Amino acid sequence: MNKFINYAHRGASAYAPENTMSAFEKAVELKANGIELDLQKTKDGKIVIFHDDFINKKSNGIGTISDYTYNELLKFDFGSWFDLKYKDEKIVLFEEFAKKFLSKDLTFAIELKTIGIEKQTLEIIDKYSKSKENIYITSFIFEALENVRKFDKDIKISWLIDEEINQNNIDKLLSIKGCQICPKADKVSNSSIELANSNKLGVRLWGIRDQEIMQKVYKLNIDGMTVNFPDKLKVLIEGE
After folding, report:
1. Pairing verdict, β 107-112 and 92-93
2. Cβ burial 174-194 (10 Å sphere, 16+ → b, else e)
3. Bridge pairing between strands 34-41 and 47-49
4. Residue range 54-67: average pLDDT?
5. What's the DSSP call for residue 184?
6. Which residues, 6+ apart, have CB-to-CB distance to 198 below 8 Å?
7. What is the pLDDT of residues 8-24, one digit of tens each?
8. Cβ neighbours of residue 52 under 8 Å, at least 6 residues apart?
9. What does the alpha-carbon distance between residue 149 and residue 202 come to, in Å, rounded to a whole number?
10. pLDDT tens for residues 140-149?
């Protein structure tokens, strides 16, 4: 059996502001063996790590990532919304993350939140990763994954879906040589996982809101899951 991957969702986001260096460092401290993060593009073409469509709730700025240059975004506080002890936490440039983390013995789920950043993202990965074996490029946007495959014939691709696994989405993913399908935890069953596995696809789950869901889906035949509390999943794994 492959190693189960405990992905810290946007870093250890239960304990530090999501998608910040503090959250990623906390994930490593808590011994997560995977990190999940989200990529968007600034007004001046830099790739930064941020999830939401708007920065309003997770910073003291307003608008979208693409409204600002990277240097303008650096002026905003991306930490105080979570806790005042994270005041002045900065937005993270993907290249800075890659430089610091991609050489570590971790598995990465790198989510593309928009189209048009695929080539640049892959170039940064190529520059800083020791091996792409531990990297999955992931997205809800199928076109983004199609573009990834045009630029890189080998990198692992996983598709985030907000529906049950079925033969249609399996066939669609296989058409771009994807290797992992990622449904929401409350839209998965033993039979749908078996269907994916029979088509030689792995399964990673998202949307694990609490420990009850985590414990329930951990028993399924999955590759891993994204959680905000990787320490709690680690205890569950080690209790096996």
Report:
1. unpaired
2. eeeebbbbbbebeebeeebbe
3. antiparallel
4. 98
5. B
6. none
7. 999 999 999 999 999 99
8. 58
9. 18
10. 999 999 999 9
Residue in the structure block whose two tokens are 């989510």:
111
Domain spans of the chain, in order of start:
5-238
Fold held by 5-238: TIM Barrel (3.20.20)
Residue type, 176: I
Side-chain half-sphere CA neighbours of 64 within 13 A: 10
Q: How far is the C-alpha of 141 from the C-alpha of 166, rounded, in Å? A: 17
Q: Give the angle subtended at the CA of 81 by the CAs of 77 and 83, to the nearest 5°.
A: 100
Structure tokens at 93: 């440039």
Distance CA 73, CA 91 (A): 7
DSSP code, position 120: H
> Is 116 in a helix, a strand, or coil?
coil
Q: Can you tell me the distance from the alpha carbon of 7 to that of 24, in angstroms, rounded to the nearest whole number? A: 11
Map tokens 């906390």 to a residue: 26
Record the tokens describing residue 24, joined without a space. Answer: 């990623």
